[in-house]
Inverse folding.
């Protein structure tokens, strides 16, 4: 009877349709970095963001050394470019201040990337050119040579983060914290991460691992340990720890129920039951400084993006309104190392993007902001109606640029900004080039993977039958 069920399962496997990846939304209640740099036995608060001031990253409440500390966010190539007004969230992060405050991380709004990832423990490719969206915010701290500022090898360090406990519905969806080395022979070559992660066996774990970037743009994950997650709890407190003059990094976590607590107060952690995650990581390899981050990765099966192909300049445009300070951002990828993209609003240039040389195979981020620090011509665009937003690609005939979803704050009336319908409805086109929406699709799982799994199950069935006959 069991063999019959197994053979039925094999039939189902060969008819398998990959699961649709839908984005999850995770709330981050508080992000804290503790540090002891004075030889005392107690950790002091170095950084504490409770996300209750309406200033989403890359703004922050500052550190003990820098009252104007900033984050570097995944979608922002210039972390100093966006002084955010209260209630005006930065691109791809939103603060909810209706209650105690929390940062809303939406998996649908991260930076689009093609991703190749190898699991060093098993030697299998977790991703092979797959599409993912990544959101991250890394705390900027001083790394000046000889400086004692920032997070140093001779400091006791703890990174703490309190997340709403949410289960991803697609493998490798994960959110968590990290300690990221800066400098050394390979920039950021020690990336210790602790994440709530959906594994390939459809079980979610708190996983402690190292992510190591390679010269070819791929990454290798080395897992130190993991513990299954109990989603009957409300929130989860993740914690990474390293002691002074010791390169070892340890990880643990605790469940939090009955409302948020202030995790910057160590006394509040005493009643919690912390669970150790097995394994030990190593940091400060060839460098003396590290940075703390929080992060979210969401797999994407397919995404609609705009393709602008040059004949002469090709422009897409539509009318929008503005309300006070505003910002506009999108991800893009040039095909060649020549050409440029010009963004204008109301006939005023917001900025020009030059093709990277050499050309990058990855998506990069454009961010344009208008606020009190902008030029008079740009400030005059605030609180206006019926301004023409124009995005123009200039390049060699036949060359093209890809543009992912457009995200705005303080701009109203922008239609079809994510191109989810697979068309350019709402956008006008001018110029001799062409504009259209194409669909990028993540690679489908190899049929051989399912065949091998099916053959394995069939083999187990045969062995069982033979044992019965022998008996």
């Amino acid at each position: 009877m069991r063999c019959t069920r197994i053979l039925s399962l094999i039939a189902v496997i060969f008819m398998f349709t990959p699961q649709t990846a839908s984005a999850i939304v995770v709330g981050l209640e508080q992000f804290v970095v503790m540090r002891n740099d004075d030889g005392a036995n107690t950790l002091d608060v170095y950084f504490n963001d409770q996300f209750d001031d309406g200033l989403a990253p890359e703004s922050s409440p500052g550190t003990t050394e820098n009252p104007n500390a900033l984050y570097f966010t995944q979608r922002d190539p210039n972390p100093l470019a966006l002084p955010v007004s209260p209630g005006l969230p930065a691109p791809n992060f939103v603060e909810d201040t209706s209650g105690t405050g929390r940062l809303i991380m939406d998996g649908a709004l991260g930076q689009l990337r093609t991703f190749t990832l190898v699991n060093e423990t098993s030697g299998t490719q977790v991703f092979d050119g797959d599409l993912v969206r990544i959101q991250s915010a890394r705390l900027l701290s001083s790394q000046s040579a000889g400086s004692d500022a920032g997070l140093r090898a001779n400091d006791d360090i703890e990174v703490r983060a309190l997340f709403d406990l949410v289960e991803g519905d697609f493998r490798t969806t994960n959110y968590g914290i990290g300690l990221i080395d800066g400098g050394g022979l390979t920039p950021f070559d020690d990336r210790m991460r602790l994440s709530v992660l959906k594994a390939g066996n459809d079980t979610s774990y708190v996983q402690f691992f190292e992510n190591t970037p390679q010269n070819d743009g791929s990454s290798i994950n080395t897992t130190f340990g993991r513990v299954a997650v109990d989603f009957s709890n409300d929130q989860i407190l993740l914690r990474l720890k390293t002691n002074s003059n010791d390169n070892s990094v340890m990880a643990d976590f605790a469940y939090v129920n009955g409302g948020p607590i202030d995790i910057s107060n160590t006394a509040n952690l005493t009643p919690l039951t912390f669970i150790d995650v097995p394994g030990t990581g190593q940091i400060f390899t060839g460098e003396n400084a590290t940075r703390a981050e929080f992060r979210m990765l969401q797999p994407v099966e397919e995404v609609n993006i705009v393709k602008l192909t040059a004949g002469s300049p090709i422009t897409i445009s539509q009318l929008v309104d503005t309300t006070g300070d505003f910002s506009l951002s999108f991800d893009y990828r040039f095909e060649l190392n020549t050409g440029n993209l010009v963004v204008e609003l109301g006939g005023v240039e917001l900025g020009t993007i030059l093709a990277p040389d050499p050309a990058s195979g990855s998506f990069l981020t454009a961010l344009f902001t208008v606020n009190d620090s902008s030029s008079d011509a740009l400030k005059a665009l605030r609180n206006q109606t019926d301004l023409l937003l124009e995005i123009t690609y200039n390049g060699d005939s036949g060359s093209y640029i890809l543009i992912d979803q457009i995200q705005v704050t303080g701009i109203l009336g922008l239609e079809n900004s994510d191109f989810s319908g697979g068309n350019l409805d709402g956008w006008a086109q001018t110029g001799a080039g062409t504009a259209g929406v194409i669909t990028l699709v993540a690679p489908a799982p190899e049929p051989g993977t399912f065949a091998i799994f099916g053959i394995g199950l069939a083999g187990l069935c045969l062995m069982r039958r033979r044992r019965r006959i022998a008996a």
User: Anything to note?
Assistant: The chain has three domains: 2-15+444-470, 25-300, 302-441. The radius of gyration is 25 Å. The first strand starts at residue 25 and ends at 36. The chain is about 10% helix and 45% strand.
